[in-house]
Task: structure prediction
Amino acid sequence: MRIILILIWKELLQVVRNRAMIPILTVIPIVQLILLSFAATNEVKKIGLAVCDNDHSTFSRRLREQFLSSDYFVLKLYTDDEKAAAATLEDDQADAVLAIPPGFERQLLRGQASSLQLQVNAINGVKGGLAGAYAGSVIQSLRRDLSLEIVPVVRQKPAVAAPISVSYRHWYNPELEYQTFMVPGILGVLVTILTMMLTAMNIVREREIGTIEQLNVTPIRKYQFIIGKLLPFLFIGLFDLAIGLTAGKLIFDIPMLGSLWLVFAFCVINLIATLAVGMLISTAAETQQQAMFISWFFMMIFILMSGLFTPIDSMPLWAQYLTIPNPIAHFVDVMRKVLLKGSGFEDIKDHFYTMLVLGPLLITLAIWRYRKTIA
Amino acid sequence: MTHEPVIIARQLTKRFGPFTAVDAISFEVEKGEIFGFLGANGAGKTTAMRMLTGLLTPTSGQASVAGFDVFRSAEQIKRHIGYMSQRFSLYEDLTVKENIRLFGTIYGLTQRQINDKTFQLLRKLGLLDEAKQLVGALPLGWKQKLAFSIALIHEPKIVFLDEPTGGVDPITRRQFWELIYQAAHEGVTVFVTTHYMDESEYCHRVSIMVDGRIAALDTPRQLKLTYEADSMDEVFVKLARTTSLS
Result:
């Protein structure tokens, strides 16, 4: 016990003495939190639209106006030349082209079906998908308006099927504020990545300098060494979580519906797994450079498969299974559920149990992999 | 000197793949002896020392240190030995006192023992005023003396020194050897590697390694007689030449 305490004391002293470390632990996470949270929005606005109008009718112009009256579309070109319209899509001036065929108004007035064509640049999948969905709802709303106007004219067929309207209400994030949604998740990622990298680099640095050899020639036990490395970084992780939550509250006014104790408790068991990953990386790396690249590999996978940007539910099934041993995926979900939705222990207990298995498993693996002997 | 070997090596061998770094070396070191371990760069000195300190597992052969087997009880050995590596390996971003406290605690000393040791050690080294300085700020010679003293903090039976005086000025080297003598006088066995042939004259016995084997092992005086040399320097050059020609 005394040995573990002295190792923690030594580690914290070294962190405090390192001039570069204090900003790395305080300023940098806050800057990242602010930048990422403002930038990482799923909202798509100002979709460039080219309209190819071959009908030149009142209805076609109304359709155009309907598109422009929403915030989502910006008119890039209004033409009756199909080639010119297609060209705007090709040279990236427009994101979508709406083609109105000749006879559009006439067919509608006769109560016949008419078709519009929408071409969407789907290179950016999210933007393309949303452009299509927005366009669909704009066209729907015009159809609704028109059907009311046309009915009196076409007396014989009064019963144009009443359009079904769907209205949305967004629970737990009513105004769809993306910062609110992103901050807790990003914070989870920042805390995890930072502590994972610090742990990996710290041990490898001792190996590079040669101080680890001095420790290895003492009767220190492997578990003492690992715990002595783990706990200081666990404290640092909790400290960073506290800073990040404070910043999130002050800057973004993120809701904190659930228990903060629960968040911190989960952070502890989550960090045990994360730090163990950092240690495993350090056992596989000889130099800080190697540790850096291995960390980067895990970092990319952990972040992109964490559900932070793309929901885990929409991943293929095999990928969903891969997120089970990913500590960040659990942390992001817990942060969102507890902070935004006010979930209690019952709602997130699966995450708790998973981490309670994963953490000790990874730690055991790290202790087993750690060698007091050289190569 | 009573016959009481504290280090026994028999056919001790270490291979790294096809390369044999240490090739079946055998020797014994007596209690309280200053045992010089000489050899050119790459002759296998450090590898041999690492096997004896439990940092490296031997490929074959036998060895025991302080009565413990290097294969089975490497961790037991670590309680009874001190080690000072080639590279300076105290924490440069901790103070002199903090380093003493850290290693003292790791070796299981009580707080009181640590306080006593700290004072004794600092007084002996004349570092009382520097107790609160970061070790990184000390001149190299002082660092080496401090590292040596910390290697002895738990009063080990044997201390292993891997080129302890590399890059140190002649006066500090002399002072360093005075510390070594003092430790040997108190019954500590000193196992030391060095590149300085004048230093080997200070050893009780010297072994010279060439290409992973022990080419000669005797007292400096006997070695000079055998090889008809005036100095250890000459002995070393003759040995290195004959073996590389054979």
About this structure: The two ends of chain A are 29 Å apart (CA to CA). The longest strand of chain A covers residues 47-53.
